[in-house]
Structure formats: C-alpha cells, structure tokens
Amino acid sequence: xxxxxxxxxxxxxxxxxxxxxxxxxxxxxxxxxxxxxxxxxxxxxxxxxxxxxxxxxxxxxxxxxxxxxxxxxxxxxxxxxxxxxxxxxxxxxxxxxxxxxxxxxxxxxxxxxxx
Amino acid sequence: xxxxxxxxxxxxxxxxxxxxxxxxxxxxxxxxxxxxxxxxxxxxxxxxxxxxxxxxxxxxxxxxxxxxxxxxxxxxxxxxxxxxxxxxxxxxxxxxxxxxxxxxxxxxxxxxxxxx
Lengths: 115, 116
Description:
Chain A is an all-beta fold.
C-alpha cells in the first residue's frame, strides 16, 4: 500500500526566506504524488502533481517540487516565502491497481511565515 | 470556486442523531470521494463512488453510508452520531475512476460537523 510521511508538523520561516516542506513516499509502483494547500476554514487546493512526465514539477504560487526516486522524496520548495503562504500543506500519493485510486495523505505541515 | 459544491457548510447536531451531507461534483466528473478530516486522525479516506457504483472503501464506520445518484451528486449519511464524529467532511471529484486526467482530484470546501 502507498503511503507518505511529512517530516515536521510545523515549519516557521521569515518572509523572503526559502520554504522547504519535506515529503517521503512509500510505493511499490511508480507513484502519482500531489501537494495540496489548505488555508484556514477552506478546502484543499491543488498546488502541483507528479505523474512521471518530468521530475521537477512547477505549481501555482511559485511552488515547485522535485521527484527523487533514489531518495523516495517529493519535497516542496519556494524560493521566497510570502505572508500569504501561511497555511497547512499536505502531501498525498495516489493508490494504484485494481479499483483503488484514492489519495492517501500525510499528516500535514503547518507553515508559519513571520514578518 | 473549485466547482465541487458541498452543503451544508456547517452542521451542529446532538449525539444519536442522523445527518446527510451532500456533494455535487465538478461538471463532467464521474467519480466522488469522501474524506474525513479530524485533528487526531488527519485526512482519512472514507469511500469512493464512480458513475453511481461504489468503487473503493476506506476507514468508513458501519454507521456511515453513502450513495451516488444518477445525476452524479453524492450523499454521505452519518447515523447514531457520537462526539468523536465531529470533523470536517470533504468531498472530492475526478473525471475518471482512477483519479487521472489533467485535473486530477478537485476538493470542495467541506462540511464542518459538530456533534454536541
């Protein structure tokens, strides 16, 4: 079964600093990987997804993630944090095989951006 | 607006009661997924329907049930409610049963259920 682990339940950065949110996956088959963002009292919004087309994936709001098979990682980065980036971020992996194509989410990482 | 509509946005009810949560998928999407988000369990997959038929089941309690109607909207029924059922319930939709396609999964804004 596929799973993801997000390292760090809370990350705090200063405005303008690099954002790095870590995600490691476990999958017996080539995975489909996703990053979602959840702003307070809102639903989940897709930031980006990896579907094996390219290892470096660019998403919305200046975020990108790199798929590294050797490290089983899919870390999310943004060169310069903005106050509006403060939110909770979820890494997810899509199941495969048979009829099971649900998303399995990590526990989430709360990003705080300090002025 | 994601295109996935969930109603109601908030629901407060007493223990032992039954509630129905509704989800209208994005236009053209055939698959609906239900998730429960709580502080202790995180985001947990409950159930998936594809074009009216149950496709996959996750950690869904026997007190919970769901269905997808011919117009593709879905309802999640929660009965004999307990305090621990208080959570955010999300619906997501995708064009296919595999969650593939260019858009993938689109989430609604959720229904916040409070059981008192």
